[in-house]
## 1
Amino acid sequence: MFALTTVIGVSMIVFVVLRILPGDPLVALLGVEGHAKMTPADRAVIMKDLGFSDSLPVQYGRWLRDIASGQLGKSFFRGDTVRDLILHRGPLSAEIAILALIISWLVGLPVGIISAVRPNGWADAITRFLSILFIAIPGFWLSMLAVLALLFWFGYKAPILVVHVWENPWQNLQIILGPAVVLGLAQGAYIARMSRSCLLEVIREDYVRTARAKGAVERAVVLRHALPNALLPVITISGVLLGFVLGGSVAVEQAFGVPGLGRALVTAIVERDIIVVQNLVLLYALIFVVVNVLVDLSYAWLDPRIRYH
Amino acid sequence: MADPVPSKLRRSAVTRRSFLKTLGVAGATVGAAPAFLRSPAAAQDFQLRAADPAAKPGGTLRFGILNAPAHFDVHQSGTIANLGPQAPMYDLLIRRDPRDGNTIIPDLAYKWDVAPDGKKYTFHLRKGVKFHDGAEMTADDIKATYERIVRPPKGVVIPRSSLFTAVGEIVILDPYRIEFRLTESRPRAFMLGAFASGWNIVVRKKTLDDNGGNLRQVMNFPGTGPFRHVSRKDKEVWIQERNPNYWNKGLPYLDRLEIYNLPPFSPELGAAFLSGKVDYARIMDPVSWRKAKEMPGVTATAMNQSVIQAYFFNMKRKPFADPKVRRALHLATDRHVLVDVVKDTAPMQVGGFVYPFHEWSTPKAEMEKRIGYQKDPKAAIQEAKKLMAEAGYAQGLKNLDFVVRDIASFKLWAVAIQAMLKENLNVETNLRVVQTSQWFEEAGSGNFDLAISAIVSSLMDPSDYFTAWYGKGGPQNYSGWTNEEFHSLAHNLEREVDENKRKAMIPRAEAILENDPPLVPVAWEQIYDAFYNRVHGQNATKFFGIYDVTRWDTVWMTQS
């Protein structure tokens, strides 16, 4: 219920904000010359054609109807449906987000464990330094460095076409790997910090001491007894981090020149393509909410105490 | 009277066989006009060819240019995002020769007559020309196309309508002859230039009727052009194939066009070209272009563009009502430095109020001696200070609101201009960077003191932009400037048919604009192209603007 309220709230906010922002969206539609020569009568006809002369509640109702139909409305400009845009570009962004999440776990968790089992040692110092560094560096800046490095060392060139994984997996991987690594490293740093602190807390618990006293090897103590109980907050933060991945992908896709949804959102904002922007923002909000609901539900599965309550 | 076409057209456009045939037909005729335009039968034989006789068919051209148009209605557009990908699918009534970018040659009209008083233009249309959907092109389609351009329906905004304000009736004489009757005379070069504008593509009457006269959201409407639509992925690529039924036999040479969406002046475009992902790149950034110039097997060219970069004054606000203040700011702006400031962002050149490369404008050498355009700005600054003192602003001006479009070159310039005005005249400005859509709202509502942007014209003929940029109530006269002497001169210039008299008016107009500036010219844009030497048949050095010559019909490749 709260999730539904959040999504409706986001839809209303984004709908209203896009319509009260300063600037004339017809500049992008008609171009500089055309806009200069537009008469008030022309403006009235064009706004009517685009459906912007109706009252806000009517426009909002129409948007809800478009969502219900699954078309999500048509681009302000060329008349392409937002649904087609999402179906064409969405897979790339989804791949980047999933791969980034996998990388963040693959990097963050081992680093957190190494850091926690030998606290304040040299390995801990190095991993803490690196994790703070990756938290502090903005994704778009790291992306630009990565693009330059790939350009000079490997002759990397930004893709000029969308290549889906089912069309050419190798080319597809070349497109998504860079953004996924950049986003994954930044989120991995959070995972490392969180898993370290949780593990340090759990590792002092009585049941861990008991496991050691029973003669379990240290590896089993950490991985089988301590880690599962330390993972709950890490899973929680992964849900939150997915939001950062989605948000971060907008700038990172732009830096890498990846033609995904993030880049489509930037272009739509520059063009003032209101219909595309409102749908993409709503989609991002919806994904964020759904992931957090799934994370909440996973608590019960992971922690039997929550099921009992 | 048949319209004269330069002899070089005859030389290069006509095959040996058609030339001999034409010579036979025209043997008894005397005069400057080419023979093949005098006789309809012979004129219809006119077929355009690539300049190089070795041109051969085949191949795919991968062209990098902005191709994400805001809509698909070429008539309503003002951006290369439309013409870049769409021009190859359409023809015009008459056109600029793609081999020199300037000469006006036949297209769907094989011949045209202009009445001696300049009030009647009759076009003779080719027979048997088919649209891509199989329908035959007739005078009905030309009439529907031009009725729409001349008098657009409500809600349809066509920037070139202003070129045809003198057009009264458009009369179909028969299915292959159409007449444009003007209410008052216009210079022939101006009118023919207007008809040959790359924007005025011929569309089917039925297409317009079926879509209520608005093609903004109609992606693939039939043309008669050398290429046909195959597929399009939004903001990625537009693929077109050779039109096998093209009326100009032998054209196009290319089998296929792949037009990639690569934004102007962007590193993406530069990288795509340098890595060989595209064969031809247009509107390159200077850094990539310089790199391309050094590459073996690559040709890098520069051409003049129909855009002036300028900053405007708000004439409704007190200091700028005084021409002395405006001239002072004009003189205190060092154009040579400003061109240098953006040398890695966008290619520019120094110029005044008239296209600096136009045959009627002040020659470059003479211009560089003129105060305000000299490489050493000392004299100009001294004069500017004197003018400010005379206007009562010897102490300068404070807190001017300087509205800047959020585009890299404008932001660089705004900072430089801010420093120049402060240092030279003690004029203090507050920069306010806004999105393009907001810039036009601010400029339109007069919410600024100074505002920097770019303005575009369709023709190099001064009568076009003297009206649009400097005319009273002109759509791009953002300063709200008026000067009765200038307006009267511009009025006469637009109606004078004697080219010598028109030419004599330009220095007078320039003098008025220099002393009572409607804007401060910052720079005039250039276009950088680069292509691999496997691409032939495109001579992008003499073009004026990128809008009239983007059809690729005379382009051919030695390998693909």
Note: Chain A touches chain B through 45 residues (CB under 8 Å).
## 2
Amino acid sequence: MSPRLSASFSLAIDWLRLFARKLEQTAHLAVGIPDYEGYVAHRRAHHPHEPVMTYEEFFRERLDSRYRKGSSRCC
Amino acid sequence: MKSVAAKLGWAAFAAFGAACLAVVALHRGESINAMWLVAASLSVFFIGYRFYGRFIGAAALRLDPTRATPAQRRNDGLDYVPTDRYVLFGHHFAAIAGAGPLVGPVLAAQMGYLPGTLWILVGVIFAGAVQDFVILFLSVRRDARSLGDMIRSEIGSAAGWVAMVGTLTIMLILLAVLALIVVKALAISPWGTFTVMATLPIAVFMGIYLRLLRPGRVLEVSAIGLVLLLLSIWLGGVIAADADWSKVFTFSGVQLAWMLIGYGFVASVLPVWLLLAPRDYLSTFLKIGTVSLLALAIFLVRPELKLPPLTRFIDGSGPVFAGSLFPFLFITIACGSVSGFHALVSSGTTPKMLDNEANARFIGYGGMLMESFVAIMALVAASVLEPGVYFSMNSPAAAIGPTVESAAQVISGWGFSLTPEMLTQTAKDIGESSILSRAGGAPTLAVGMAQILRGLIPGAGMMAFWYHYAILFEALFILTTIDAGTRIGRFMIQDLVGAAYAPFRRTESWTANLVATALCVAGWGYFLYQGAIDPLGGVNTLWPLFGIANQMLAALALIFASVVLIKMKRERYLWVTAVPMIWLLVCTLTAGWQKVFSDNVKLGFLAHAHKFGEALGQNQVLAPAKSIAEMQRIVQNDYVDAALALLFMTVVVLTLLFGARAAWKARRSEQPTALEAPYVAAPVR
């Protein structure tokens, strides 16, 4: 493979990876679960000395909050 | 140079859209390809988004990209998260899409495909998308607060209470009508009943898997759930073919209604992780997947529309719902063109995640256009059916009789060619014993979808598979809405009663929870039971009431939006929200008035009650009632329905008066008086 071809190949792979990640984020958010990595990054940046929930805790917290006050859904 | 090319491009696109629309509107003949309708709709959506949506954002609302959104100001990584606009679009669409845009257009097809298409397109561009967009914007400017909250602070607390009572009643009617759709689709259908019942153990398994086995692996467990669902459709076919087993899963409408009422109570007090959440995941993904599949199939199969553009029933004599084109078409097609419920979503979770004010148009206006496209697809699915088949499925037994022969005779008399063989053959194709009088839209949509999807993946038995897939897909998210809705109704009842008796508000009190849940279930259960025993099919009565309620909620949202525009001193653009508001007020008040006071017994609740009451006075039993007790119940139901319609009208009129008072005060002030959160500059990116 020529260097040029392999460069554009890895570019395409990166793009696909980004696309898959966006798709996963969309699917998760469609059922009320925001991006976990985003949450962790936010906690690290803004509350560096406070505990960060594990993914399992995060998932439970989100599940409870989605149905706590009842999410309004359309007809 | 570039802008000239862009202008030319849009002009050409507009001409293309106009040409497609002209073909749809003016074509008279045998049949027309669905692609004309789809292409016309897409052109209207793009042009509406590019020009009208942009105008509203830039001129009327003045979206400010430099202003920090609630997500930016209060980012907590959980509720308030600045989110990529495409990702947020998916969230917003999943939250607004439901059964409404699928059912309304199917019912409205009794007048032909043209009136429905035109109202969906005009309605969404000038009313529905405007409402969703403006409410989203107003909520973003107010710390992502809810519609009820915003009405309280901008118009007054009395208006807030009125709106809350209105919303609760709408909720109850919505749940009743959705449950009735499930009842109508599953009555005497062992295949459908089995597959829908199978979703309960599947969901519970998913819930346990998510909680204990592999916590939080949502996509993984949803994939497993989907495979199990498809297996249950196959197994349902086996069960329906078996003489003994099919009896176990055969229930009448009334039995199913009681089962749903019991289910609604139990499901809404169970812990959410066990049943509600996993089924919500499944139904959300299935919904988005099925809608995409239907779109793909329509593009690939390009079916012909068999339904005429206009039928004789625009005069109001139709069997599917009573009432003439104005106002009842605009009531029947609720969610596909404008839906008050979206105002609750647009002021719910979405405004907490908007990463920039400028994206409010894409999410709010664009999301509603997408919903409207679903409505167009539902209309296409209903229109690919033979008109005779369509009417046999959607007319009550009281109109077409109980047998295929009677149905074929009556419907042929209406001018739609139909033979008994066509009806038995269609029932056989979809694996059911009968398709007669399966009102409620879902079965019709399922047959239409099955017909289109069969064009995509042909094969013997595929039609029956797709039919039950479509029924399952609708029943699944209706059941989710029923227990989520019962929970919301319970919170509202606790809030309302709690205002008078404070301990009732405590959501951790089991007594308060159970009593409020029972009240909520009894509220929608009453209307569901009434619909299930109604010989006219129930959908006839309940859907118009739901439509009036839903459009009324949209009118409330638009009254609020108009008041705020005046308070912002943007009177120049008041027409943007005031014109659809006036139209909705005219439609809902006219429809409500006719439902209560019309002399036509088929239309007016009071006229109907009067007729049956008079017969009752002479000890007569009128068909479809079979006993004096049934006669009394019919009269009683008529009065309840009339009272409900009057309540809806009162809510609208009161809100209008409160809004007018707030607007009058705002006019007299020199300064803008809208209560926005103070300006904070967005972080530079």
Note: The longest helix of chain A spans residues 3-30.
## 3
Amino acid sequence: MNRRNFLKVAGVTASVVAVSPVAFKQSVEAQPKKKTFEEALKEVTGGKPVKESSKVKLIAPAIAENGAVVPVKISVDHPMEPDNYVKGIHIFAKENADPRTISVYLTPANGEAFFSTRIRLAKTMNVVAVAELSDGTFLKAEKPVKVTIGGCG
Amino acid sequence: MLKKITVFLFLMTFGISSAKAEIRWLYDLDMALYKAQKQNKLILIYIYSPHCGYCKKMDRTTFKDREIQEIIKKYFIPVKVDKDSPQGEMIKAEYGYLGTPTFHFLESNGRKIKSIFGAWEKKDFLMILKYFAKGYYKKMNMTEYFMNEN
């Protein structure tokens, strides 16, 4: 190895050694922090109590054939009047890395507190629908949804 | 002597009942189609890989369950194929492949009803088998069926 090649190799090695701890730290920090369901719920409710209610109807399959696209339908049996209405519907997938899956905000002009969507479930878990009422109270419904325990590509 | 006879009878009974419970997988689709038409049953194809841990788990747990074995015996002609075998390649080309395990549910004439991917706990797989065995697949798709199972 001549002097020129030695300097090239030494330079590249020194760069890798110098950069890699930083890059490694950045890649670790870049990963989203896993939230608990309680943390995600608090983002929505601000810590207010959430009452289980039959007024919130959550329809989801007992078994989802594909966890990547699980259909859910939510309706809230509540008036949609200017001073008394459902302000928002929030869906949580309890065991996902970020359990807060979707928040939909409504106005009395919606006429009915209903929406349907498809959500992703990382594994078998409970899905929670939380209805936020205009008086600041919260109602919820919960349902377990099972998905495959896994497979190989 | 009486003790020996009793033990012999016990082993015979236990052996026969164990053999009855096992799923009798076929390894040839043509034979399965012939049997399915003759017995008017559905066909359950299980595509596995010997290297797939989830397949091994299903073999060890779900397919060892008595209720699963009974419903398969009563309503299905079960076919098990290695994904890389000639039969496996033929079935993958004909009915598709989603990874291992893949389950294809066919009518007795060979028409595909549905394919399902992944390993399932015995309770969940039993519910899936019932959807096909009881003919609910003729009335609604699987998602609708399980949406109604609220």
Note: Helices of chain B lie at 2-21, 29-39, 53-60, 66-75, 86-95, 122-133, 142-148.
